[in-house]
Design brief:
Layout: H1 2-9, E1 22-33, H2 35-41, E2 49-58, E3 69-85, E4 94-109, E5 118-137, H3 141-146, E6 153-172, E7 180-191, E8 193-197, E9 203-204, E10 210-211, E11 214-218, E12 221-230, H4 233-237
Antiparallel strand pairs: 1-2, 1-12, 2-3, 3-4, 4-5, 5-6, 6-7, 7-12, 8-11, 9-10
Length: about 240
């Protein structure tokens, strides 16, 4: 990490963007949950989560002064897959999806000025993590076309826990203010134990009552993110 930082500080030709006071980023991500939680996910994609992320950071010194620190907000979404339970008798087929949402305050430490082709950074995050399990009636095309008046969502379970972590990564330095760069970030997020709905445990009886089993697990995870970064508002609005 130290040698990587040194390369950027004594890099090749200095870019046209000398420093940045705004940093927007977004892209796709893969979550590798803690060993405890991976055992209960039981999906068809290696017990991993897949989703999207986005963030917006600004300099606390304003737009005219370079700063090694940016602060802002960071959002994330994962899905851990779904399962279907075939209906019995008058009970319809059910589909339950398991998703995670994260909201964090974020801080970024980076070199004050852009030199060379890439800029490394270290991020810190703290916020909330929401685990959601939503059960719907799995309607087929006929149900959707003729609208059988059944309530689509029959069960929705949420649990929220504290979320905090550290990340390292880099982004490529765009040559112009209206160009985007590439960003790679590796995060480790610590998390509280949260309550989750056990897979394949949701049952609707003939009276329409919903029952399900819950358990608790540690929610720490490693996250790999790949996306783009914009270092000026011009990049987002498309101004010349």
């Amino acid at each position: 990490m130290i040698s990587f930082w040194a390369i950027t500080c004594h890099g090749q030709q200095e870019d046209s963007i000398k420093f940045t006071t705004v940093n927007f980023y977004a892209g796709g991500q893969v979550a590798i949950p803690s060993a405890e939680f991976r055992k209960v996910i039981k999906n068809s994609t290696g017990n991993l989560g897949y989703g999207l992320y986005a963030g917006f950071l600004m300099s606390p010194l304003g737009k005219n002064k370079p700063s090694p620190i940016l602060v802002g907000i960071d959002f994330g979404f994962f899905t851990y897959g779904n399962e279907k339970q075939k209906g019995v008798g008058n009970t319809p087929t059910l589909k339950t999806t398991h998703n995670v949402f994260t909201w964090n305050a974020a801080g970024r430490l980076k070199p004050i000025r852009h030199q060379g082709k890439v800029t490394p950074f270290v991020d810190g995050l703290i916020g909330l993590k929401l685990f959601n399990s939503k059960t719907k009636i799995d309607k087929d095309l006929t149900n959707l076309v003729f609208n059988d008046n059944q309530n689509e969502v029959i069960n929705n379970v949420n649990d929220t826990g504290l979320n905090y972590g550290l990340g390292v990564g880099f982004y490529t330095n765009p040559q112009k203010t209206n160009a985007a760069g590439f960003q790679l970030r590796l995060l480790y997020l610590w998390g509280d134990e949260v309550k989750y709905v056990v897979r394949n445990s949701v049952v609707v009886n003939q009276n329409g009552n919903v029952t399900f089993d819950t358990a608790r697990a540690n929610t720490s995870m490693v996250i790999i993110q790949i996306g783009f970064t914009a270092l000026a508002l011009k990049t987002l609005v498309g101004a010349n």
